[in-house]
């Protein structure tokens, strides 16, 4: 459920007409709904009721300061994957003891900065990384709390580019080597082992892969405890999928996911952490664009819009589907049309949809890409010297630009000319 609905023949974001935002901000832009962000966070929080837990929003999905502050105000922790994300989380007022640091390539500088600023735990992905965290912790005279990310070798049954829990993926250490790696960790004086971490992929639409992974984590917890390790926290990653179309089978709900966690891991009396990103932000955001031309090709109509792959790369990168709707609601009974929907960038990959059947639109009409809140704005670039796409946050009947569009001068002036030119 989200808060982008037609009212009086127009698309609204909560109580604001999307056309009103477009008139003020220009197109293209991202628009997020506060109520939807909050609702999705609460669904996870409530799904884990009865277990000690922390929902750490995976902020790589959408990391604007205003979004982070909205979630932090509800008590969210953050899952960060870089020193930059850590700095953003701190800047948004998230305390260090609610920030977990994931990722396969943490550098010594990033580890130092987070240990100084305060960190809930490192999710360690390799033995070389373990050595570096140990060395930096000793240098600073602190002890770094860690979990080890285990790779359970399960098939997440998702797009290959976002599956992370198979042995061929770069993530984590093989679960078969876990005992050895935990023994090594326990021997390093700068580290304190506190738990286990697992994250098997993104946009999972079934519970079965989670179940297989969490059962392996449960067994590992018992084995590691038997070896004398204190396993008190289980970080279960993110990955629960969202419905990108209205027609397909809906993915499991957070409450069903929460029940699975209770069933597979509840008996261990561990504190539970989860790291949802997409399910919190995905359906809480739309990308709004304007039709520039309808161009009749030989056998198809091209809808050429002012948004492009640099603004929303998911279709080009993951063959992702986004529902695309006109901002002005079509008259009931009007005949649908078929379009290839493309941006102006000079690449054939700059195609959002082929042979998409939808309500008819014409030049200058606004359209909205639904479910664009996660992995949308954060992956935007200025390719083709297109200004970085702005972001807007709606809250009831108010809206605010939370990242403005840069001017062309600002973009040009970021370049510097060497003295020999
Ligand atoms: C990307 C990622 C997440 C979030 O995944 P979603 O599919 O957006 O929920 C959580 N944890 C880790 C370690 C990740 O890399």
Automatic annotation (TrEMBL):
InterPro entries reported in the protein's UniProt record: Ala_racemase/Decarboxylase_C, DAP_deCOOHase_LysA, De-COase2_C, De-COase2_CS, De-COase2_N, Orn/DAP/Arg_de-COase, PLP-binding_barrel
PTM sites of type N6-(pyridoxal phosphate)lysine: 60
One Pfam family, short name: Orn_Arg_deC_N
Single GO molecular function: pyridoxal phosphate binding
EC number: 4.1.1.20
Active site residues per record: 346 (proton donor)
Keyword Zinc among record annotations: no
Pathway: Amino-acid biosynthesis; L-lysine biosynthesis via DAP pathway; L-lysine from DL-2,6-diaminopimelate: step 1/1
Ranges for domain Orn/DAP/Arg decarboxylase 2 C-terminal: 29-373
Orn/DAP/Arg decarboxylase 2 N-terminal domain location: 35-281
Cofactor(s) essential for the protein: pyridoxal 5'-phosphate
Positions bound to substrate: 278, 314, 318, 347, 375
Residues reported to bind pyridoxal 5'-phosphate: 239, 275-278, 375
GO biological process, one term: lysine biosynthetic process via diaminopimelate
Known catalytic reactions: meso-2,6-diaminopimelate + H(+) = L-lysine + CO2
Keywords: Amino-acid biosynthesis, Decarboxylase, Lyase, Lysine biosynthesis, Pyridoxal phosphate
CDD domains: PLPDE_III_DapDC
Quaternary organization: Homodimer.
Function in brief: Specifically catalyzes the decarboxylation of meso-diaminopimelate (meso-DAP) to L-lysine.
Family recorded in the similarity comment: Belongs to the Orn/Lys/Arg decarboxylase class-II family. LysA subfamily.
Protein's name according to its UniProt entry: Diaminopimelate decarboxylase
UniProt gene name: lysA
